[in-house]
Amino acid sequence: MNTPSSRIHHLSPHRLGLTGSIGAGKSTVAALLRERGLTVLDADAEARKVTEEPQTLAQIETAFPGTVKEGVLDRSALAAAAFADPERTQILNTITHPRVRARMADLEAEAVARGATWVVQDIPLLFESGQEKNFDAVLLVNAPLEVRIGRVMARSNLSREDILARDARQLPAAEKRQRATVTLENGGDLAELEQQLDTALLQLGVKAPALNPG
User: Fold this and answer.
1) pLDDT score at 85
2) Beta-ladder partners of 72
3) Domain containing residue 66
4) How far is CA 80 from each of CA 10, 117, 166, rounded to the nearest angstrom?
5) Of 140, 138, 134, 160, which is closest to residue 148 (Cα–Cα)?
6) What is the pLDDT of residue 209?
7) In what order do the strands lie in the sheet with 39-42?
8) Rounded to 5°, angle at Cα 156 from 107 and 58
9) Residue 135 domain-assigned (yes or no)
10) Where residue 178 sits, what CATH number does that domain have?
11) Mean per-residue pLDDT for 2-23?
12) What is the mean pLDDT of the chain?
């Protein structure tokens, strides 16, 4: 016999995937979606929580010795070790991705219990991880490469070479545009981005309280 809480896990809202290359402005769009009343689940935030769990840390230390110090993950050391080549990156993904997806599923179920009919999942490597099939639509945030590099350098200690290396690990922007349902071109100002976003939400039929008062 199903309990009310167990039945909640069988309900599925409409899912909107949100993705974009480094520096494109995905976090800005996520904030705008939250302002419009949508539930936005952040895969990166959940990944950070996952890598604080003792079981996960033990597996990471086994696969990448020296990256966990006194029970705390050295994220810089892990990045250097795990992103050295695709095979090592896949080892890390095998450890973390199932746990992240489980956390996202639990958070989605909580959103459904609160009455959400649409849930946004903010996933940087959505296409690269083959997850687009899990979504009703995918919203891509894009911007010219030099604009993206400038933004990232302004907010972090990453060099141009570091940014280009990270960007190279993702699908080319042109391929992402082909695979996305809608692309927001974020090379202008915030007002222009907001206008594009609201048009996209209406086009996709995404129900957000701010767009559907009453």
Assistant:
1) 82
2) 69
3) 17-200
4) 40, 40, 12
5) 160
6) 54
7) 39-42, 118-122, 14-20, 137-142, 182-185
8) 50
9) yes
10) 3.40.50.300
11) 70
12) 89
